[in-house]
Specification:
The chain has about 425 residues and is mainly α. About 70% of the residues lie in helices and about 0% in strands. Among the domains are: about 130 residues, no CATH class; about 90 residues, Tetratricopeptide repeat domain (Serine Threonine Protein Phosphatase 5, Tetratricopeptide repeat), CATH 1.25.40.
Length: about 425
């Protein structure tokens, strides 16, 4: 039990790695009471704080490692690193420490039976003597946590983005037989992250993982066939591998199969099949599929045109940050399709997409300023947004810029620039 009680100190060490004057047991900096993270943390009951901590451990309670707390912490990082993205590392660390302290000190009767089972499982695993069976389980767990650490370095979540460190830890996990790590290594080869881009090596490692049932790797092989990366383009093979992944419920694969049917890639164009696969992916939470469902309802492809349904699906995708859906949602509000015309809402969603560098949305923001829809007419702002879109070769924005220069709207009249 004493080993488990050191986790709070270890997490502080991990989060402070690379910072000056960081020591085990350093106190978390106090943040102002108005800070959103503090409000969030202080609003939790002791049981809720405990649940945050316990759920993180419970997700990995079959992979407790004899090497001790540091590896447990790596698994916890994978569970709650999104808190760090939302509130910052210091506040996420604070939540973890408060959660841990609550679980350590709170009477058992106030902790859920699941929480007690998780702790008991962890403590028993730590106290078990070594055996061949335990050693095998430990090795598998260690490889899993090495993968987690590698992915955190790869994405820069909770740890500084560092491709060299990511590669080192992922290779360790690969050596331990971790199939997800094999897929991660393939991804690094495919994108040239931490090593030279090499599609042939990417395909080798994707195949190793795919042949062991990794659905993500199966879909990635489908992507490589569809785009001819390291192999001749072959839509039939792309569909074969995507189906393998989709049969395991992989939402990305379901979306990609829907796209193939919608475009007639390797199969006859079939909107009904596209709709089926998009809906499967959308029901699994895939934002791109939700957006494409919205588009099919918007355009009446495979279904009767239904702007209300289009708005519903665009909104689901937009709420997940899908830029194309945000732009399309803005368009429906601007045109009063599926909802009452609302320029203010249109501008909100256009801006969300434009801030993600969606060129069409940037052009639409420019149009709103040029026409004075929902905001005071402002040619200078219109020019700014048209330039952003035109720099991405958006033809509509380029045409609008030409018109503004020709008419001297927001700039000195300049026919040379108008026809440049």
């Amino acid at each position: 039990m004493l080993r488990l009680l050191t986790v709070g100190a270890v997490i502080a060490t991990l989060f402070c790695a690379g910072r000056d004057n960081a020591h085990v047991g350093d106190q978390v900096a106090v943040v102002p009471s108005s800070d959103p993270a503090t409000v969030f943390i202080d609003g939790l009951t002791m049981e809720s704080k405990c649940e945050v901590f316990v759920n993180a451990l419970h997700d990995h309670n079959k992979m407790v490692i004899d090497d001790g707390d540091q590896l447990i912490v790596l698994s916890v990082l994978a569970h709650y690193d999104i808190l760090g993205q939302q509130f910052g590392e210091t506040q996420a660390q604070q939540l973890f420490q408060r959660s841990f302290n609550g679980c350590s000190s709170h009477p058992d009767e106030t902790i859920s039976s699941q929480a007690r089972a998780a702790f008991q499982s962890i403590l028993q695993s730590l106290d078990q003597p070594s055996s061949p069976e335990n050693a095998s389980s430990s090795a598998q767990g260690e490889a899993e946590l090495q993968r987690v650490l590698g992915e955190l370095y790869l994405a820069g979540r909770g740890l500084p983005k560092d491709y060299a460190q990511a590669l080192a830890w992922i290779r360790k996990a690969v050596d331990g037989g971790n199939t997800i790590a094999q897929s991660d290594l393939a991804y690094m080869y495919a994108h040239g992250q931490g090593l030279a881009q090499d599609y042939e090596q990417a395909l080798i490692w994707y195949r190793k993982a795919a042949e062991q049932g990794n659905s993500g790797a199966q879909n990635d092989i489908g992507y490589m066939y569809a785009h001819g990366q390291g192999i001749p383009q072959d839509f039939a093979q792309a569909l074969v591998w995507r189906r393998k992944a989709a049969d395991q419920g992989n939402a990305h694969a379901e979306h990609d199969i829907g796209f193939m049917y919608s475009k007639g890639q390797g199969v006859p164009q079939d909107y009904a099949q596209a709709l089926y696969w998009y809906r499967r992916a959308a029901d699994h939470g895939n934002a791109a599929a939700q957006g494409r469902l919205g588009s099919m309802y918007d355009n009446g492809q495979g279904v009767p045109q239904d702007f209300a349904q289009a708005l519903i699906w665009y909104r689901r995708a937009a709420d997940q940050g899908n830029a194309a859906a945000q732009n399309n949602l803005g368009y429906l509000y601007a045109e009063g399709k599926g909802a009452a015309q609302d320029y203010a809402q249109a501008l909100i969603w256009y801006r969300k997409a434009a801030d993600q560098d969606d060129a069409t949305a940037q052009a639409n923001v420019g149009n709103m300023y040029a026409e004075g829809h929902g905001i005071p007419q402002n040619y200078n702002q219109a020019l700014t947004w048209f330039h952003k879109a035109a720099d991405q070769n958006h033809p509509g924005a380029q045409s609008s810029l030409g018109y503004m220069y020709a008419q001297g709207l927001g700039v000195a009249q300049d026919h040379a620039q108008a026809f440049a």
